[in-house]
Amino acid sequence: MLRFQFDEKKGVEALTYVASKWPGLTAFFAAKVLFFAEKQHLNRYSRPIVGDTFIAMPNGPVPSTLYDFIKGRLDQAGDPDAIMAALLIERDPYPRVAAQRAPDLDALSPSDLECLDEAIAFCRGRGFGALSGLTHQERAWLEAPANGPMDYEHMIEGDDREVIVAEAREFASYGVL
């Protein structure tokens, strides 16, 4: 299984960026934006944006660590105060994410922002059922055990798949940039 080391700082900044661009962002849409951005970035640049572990949940992929943060589970966070300063989570009737400050764009590369913007545009134009249905067609979701981790290798597609997989495997041994 191809996995990456989660980068908490980049994860928080990516989520803050998405929340700053999408007022009223729900946990569901945040998860789908992050999944599609991560997949797009991996296919273009052979590396993920944040390297979170995506879980194959009933309504589609969920970035496990960032979802824990959204749910208020900060006990495993390296810097809970930084997360609380960056994000406001409203839980009535279900979790919504808002940016409490501007995202630190120095933590995100131009290619990160490009893929995040594309994923926001892609997801914003679709409803809950449509996005859930689209993610249920993703190989990584289909091949993962129910409520289990998804394999990043299964997110990689296209003619250059073998080259990208090799580069991603090499990158995975070093971490997220």
Q: Care to describe what's here?
A:
By secondary structure, the protein is mainly alpha-helical. The chain has one domain. It is 49% helix and 10% strand. The chain has helices at residues 8-21, 27-45, 64-70, 80-86, 110-124, 128-135, 139-143, 161-172, and strands spanning 25-26, 54-57, 60-63, 87-90, 96-99. Strands 1-5-4 form a 3-stranded antiparallel β-sheet. Helix 1 (8-21) crosses helix 5 and helix 2 (27-45) crosses helix 5. The mean pLDDT is 94. This is Antitoxin SocA-like Panacea domain-containing protein. Pfam families: SocA_Panacea. Residues 32-141 form the Antitoxin SocA-like Panacea domain.
- Class based on secondary structure composition and strand pairing: mainly alpha
Which shape, going by the Cα principal axes? Answer: globular
What is the number of E strands? 5
Order of helices and strands: HEHEEHHEEHHHH
The percent range for helix content is 40-55%
Tally of contiguous helical segments: 8
| Major β-sheet strand ordering | 1-5-4
Largest sheet: 3 strands, antiparallel
User: How many domain units?
Assistant: 1
Oligomer: single chain
β content, as a range?
5-15%
Radius of gyration: 15 Å
Concise synopsis of the structure shown:
With 177 residues, this protein is mainly α. It has helices spanning 8-21, 27-45, 64-70, 80-86, 110-124, 128-135, 139-143, 161-172, and strands at residues 25-26, 54-57, 60-63, 87-90, 96-99.
